[in-house]
C-alpha cells in the first residue's frame, strides 16, 4: 500500500505569510533569545532598536541606548579605540564583521561581548543601516584566559629547573641566542661565568643525595642574588654545573662577579669532607667575555668558556680560569 501524498492546504498560511501578516512575531522571536538584537541608522548614528535583554545583561535601561556614543561610552577604555576604529572602517566599506570587547555594566563591572554586525545597503548600494546581535561571551573568555594561564604556567615549568627553581638549559640556550644577536647589534660585551661544584660525586657519596640536592639549591639561590639585573640569567647547566649569562658586562666586571661567586660558595659553609675534597664545598669557574663580530657563534663562545672551567679543574680546583 503506497503512502498517501502529502499536500499543503491552501487555507493554511506559510511561515513567511505569518511573519508578513504579524510583524510582532519577529519581535517576539528576537526578544526571546539570549542574544541581544539591535539596529543603528547609519545616517543619524542613532539606535533604531535594541532588545530589552540588554538591561538584564548590563543593567542599562533599553531606552538609554540612543546613539552610538552611548555604545562607545560603555566600552572598556582599553578596547575602545581598537574596536570603534575597526567597526567604523568595516561598516563604511560595507563589510559584515564582528568584534569582541568589554562592555561596562551599570554596577561598574565589565562583561565580555561579541558583536556580530551585518551592513545593510539601499538600492543604490549606499550603507543604510547596521543590524547586529550582541552575545555574552564572558564564560568563553574566562575559559580562554584560564587555558592561556595554564599554557604560560606549563611554558614556565618547561623553562625552569625542577630542583633549584632557576632557569634550565633550555631557557639558557634561548636567552644566549637572543643576547648574542643583541650584542652583535649593540657592540656591547657579553660575558659568561661557568662554575662546577668541586668533587660533587664524593659529596653525594659522603652525605647522600638529599643533602646533595640541598647543596645545589642553596648555591642556586646564592647565585641568583649575585646576578640580579633583569637581563642576567642564572641557569643550571646540568648536574652540578651552573652558568651565568651577563649581557653588557665587560671582562673586569665578569671577573669580579666570578670571584664573588667563588667566595660566597665557600662562605655558605657547606661541609664537604669527602674523599680528595676540602672541609667545605667549593667550585671551579671558567669566565669569558665576547665582543660579537665576524663569524664566531654563540656555541663557539660557550664551548670556549666551558673549556676554561675544565682547565680550572685540572689546575687544582677552587680557582678561576679566564678565556
Automatic annotation (TrEMBL):
<dbReference type="GO" id="GO:0052621">
    <property type="term" value="F:diguanylate cyclase activity"/>
</dbReference>
<dbReference type="InterPro" id="IPR000700">
    <property type="entry name" value="PAS-assoc_C"/>
</dbReference>
<dbReference type="InterPro" id="IPR000014">
    <property type="entry name" value="PAS"/>
</dbReference>
<dbReference type="GO" id="GO:0043709">
    <property type="term" value="P:cell adhesion involved in single-species biofilm formation"/>
</dbReference>
<dbReference type="InterPro" id="IPR035965">
    <property type="entry name" value="PAS-like_dom_sf"/>
</dbReference>
<dbReference type="InterPro" id="IPR043128">
    <property type="entry name" value="Rev_trsase/Diguanyl_cyclase"/>
</dbReference>
<dbReference type="InterPro" id="IPR000160">
    <property type="entry name" value="GGDEF_dom"/>
</dbReference>
<feature type="domain" description="GGDEF">
    <location>
        <begin position="188"/>
        <end position="323"/>
    </location>
</feature>
<feature type="domain" description="PAC">
    <location>
        <begin position="97"/>
        <end position="149"/>
    </location>
</feature>
<dbReference type="InterPro" id="IPR001610">
    <property type="entry name" value="PAC"/>
</dbReference>
<protein>
    <recommendedName>
        <fullName>diguanylate cyclase</fullName>
        <ecNumber>2.7.7.65</ecNumber>
    </recommendedName>
</protein>
<dbReference type="Pfam" id="PF00990">
    <property type="entry name" value="GGDEF"/>
</dbReference>
<dbReference type="InterPro" id="IPR029787">
    <property type="entry name" value="Nucleotide_cyclase"/>
</dbReference>
<dbReference type="GO" id="GO:0005886">
    <property type="term" value="C:plasma membrane"/>
</dbReference>
<dbReference type="GO" id="GO:1902201">
    <property type="term" value="P:negative regulation of bacterial-type flagellum-dependent cell motility"/>
</dbReference>
<dbReference type="InterPro" id="IPR050469">
    <property type="entry name" value="Diguanylate_Cyclase"/>
</dbReference>
<dbReference type="InterPro" id="IPR013655">
    <property type="entry name" value="PAS_fold_3"/>
</dbReference>
<dbReference type="Pfam" id="PF08447">
    <property type="entry name" value="PAS_3"/>
</dbReference>
